[in-house]
Amino acid sequence: MPMALIAPSILSANFLNMEADINMINNSEADWFHLDVMDGRFVPNITFGMPVIAAMKAKAKKTFDVHLMIVEPEKYIEGFAKAGADVLSVHYEASTHLHRNLQIIKANGMKAGVAMNPHTPIELLADLIEDIDVVCLMSVNPGFGGQKFIERTYHKIRTLKQMIVERGASTLIEIDGGVTLQNAGLLIKDGADVLVAGNTVFSSPDPADTIKKLKEIGK
Ligand SMILES: O=C(CO)[C@H](O)[C@H](O)COP(=O)(O)O
């Protein structure tokens, strides 16, 4: 089985002692930091924005994977590049001009991601799959950590993988929401390249060891 990249979701970290969790991720087998930006409009929750990400970037030693759950993401692409995003995902549902958003993300030196809500058909990406570096498939309704994985996601991963292979694209498939030590193997088998994990990592007694176990599942 191919190995997946592991991206602990900062949403579930200890906001009162973020430096400790950043160091834990730095010293763990994690590949990316996953950072959820929520605006209280696209999703019913508000998290953090550019100043917090810039502060974290000064301490973090791994790729910053920033997931914008915001309306009008085009207004903030340059700002998140300056804050330190390496991968920037905008939502399909929040992008009137998705192709243009991808171009702006790349022009600002970042990898371009598209996040999709659970109800959005994957086939809608058919005309721009070659232009997408990462598809972030939401496997819960966005807005909160610790939710139950939506089983239909497996089917979406397989459909998306087939599209990517048929078109010769190099797009990575990222799964976000409800990832556990129990379902990680099936997700990777079906084609997931990146696993986001919040609750599974940070609610465990030994988060670094849980990251190691997630990493080992793909081996
Ligand atoms: O995008 C998100 C929520 O909108 C989070 O990244 C996602 O929920 C991960 O958290 P968990 O692993 O606890 O489900």
From TrEMBL:
Pfam families: Ribul_P_3_epim (PF00834). Its cofactor is a divalent metal cation; Zn(2+); Co(2+); Mn(2+). GO terms for cellular component: cytoplasm. It catalyses: D-ribulose 5-phosphate = D-xylulose 5-phosphate. Its EC number is 5.1.3.1. GO terms for molecular function: D-ribulose-phosphate 3-epimerase activity; metal ion binding. The active site is at residues 36, 176. A divalent metal cation binds at residues 34, 36, 67, 176. Pathway: Carbohydrate degradation. Binds 1 divalent metal cation per subunit. InterPro entries: Aldolase_TIM, Ribul_P_3_epim, Ribul_P_3_epim-like, RibuloseP-bd_barrel. Keywords: Carbohydrate metabolism, Cobalt, Isomerase, Manganese, Metal-binding, Zinc. One of its GO terms (biological process) is pentose catabolic process. Belongs to the ribulose-phosphate 3-epimerase family. Catalyzes the reversible epimerization of D-ribulose 5-phosphate to D-xylulose 5-phosphate. This is Ribulose-phosphate 3-epimerase. It comes from Flavipsychrobacter stenotrophus. The gene is rpe.
